[in-house]
Amino acid sequence: MIKAKKSLGQNFLVDTNILQTIVNSININNKTILEIGPGTGNLTNFILNKNPKEVFVIEKDDELATNLRNKFTNKLNIINDDVLNVDESSLFKEKVIVFGNLPYNISTEILSKWIVNLKDDFWFEALILMFQKEVADRIVANFDSSNYGRLSIFANWKLNINKIIDIKPSSFRPIPKIDSSLLFFTPKKNFYGIKNAKNLEKITRIFFNNRRKMLKKPYNQIFNGNLKVLEKLKINLNLRPQNLSSEIYYKLTEEYEKLTS
User: Are residues 11 and 122 in the same domain?
Assistant: First the structure.
């Protein structure tokens, strides 16, 4: 019997209604599929029943990878590696659909890695990913809300994001102590032409390090009191970081890149 490893953040989804909801969220007939962290293959079974063209899975755990080989003989392309080490864009000749019950301890790191490395020609058609509910709420948060912050701004830069469903702990084995959420991501056709994602990370870090204070201090730290940028973007420095929309942060980053290039 396979036992979940706490060190790898393993909680296996066993609720058949939720598994059905996940595979029904998008048409995968004759599509190439990538599943991140398939675990014991519960979702993999549902995916294979939908007649995909080809299925790839990335599983870090050696024992689980061996179990998947035995369970799904010749039906899967198994990559026994850490997803953070894999260059997904080089694996496929066509756009893929990605499913993932991501390890919660590295879920934001995985998402950030994908966004940073995205080029104009996206390697995926859609991402259907599970997160800790608290993290998912931050990803989908709108400005002027308590959950809004750096993750909201970064995730929404190149991706359209919708929540599909919240999932109770009882749907997993072992039962976690937190609720989960399933999010649906698709590429944006048009997004702000920031040259280096690290600049967006820098801008948002400086602003949200002073989350409860007015914008004047972080703005001056970045732009040294430059009034032209302030007037162009019509920013009120008496506001606080969560009062500015994502679009303003993308524009601030573009202006910063112009001034520092």
Answer: yes
**Looking at the domain assignment, is residue 157 inside a domain?**
yes
Give the number of domains in the chain: 2
Q: Residue 257 contacts by C-beta under 8 Å, 6 or more apart in sequence?
A: 194, 195, 196, 199
pLDDT band at 32 (very low <50, low <70, confident <90, very high): very high
**Distance between CA atoms of residues 98 and 213, nearest Å:** 39
Could you give the CA distance from residue 207 to residue 215 in angstroms, rounded to a whole number?
7
**CA-CA distance, 183 to 220, in Å (whole number)?**
36
CA distance 156 to 72: 36
**Model pLDDT for residues 130-188, shown as the tens digit of each residue:** 999 999 999 999 999 999 999 999 999 999 999 999 999 999 988 989 999 999 999 99
In a shared domain, residues 47 and 136: yes
Give the Cβ contact number of residue 188 at 10 Å.
14
**Domain around 85:** 6-187
The answer to whether 253 and 200 are in contact (CB under 8 A) is yes
Q: Which of 9-13, 34-38, 238-242 has the lowest mean pLDDT?
A: 9-13
Alpha-carbon span 261 to 257, nearest angstrom = 6
- What is the pTM (predicted TM-score) of this model? 0.93
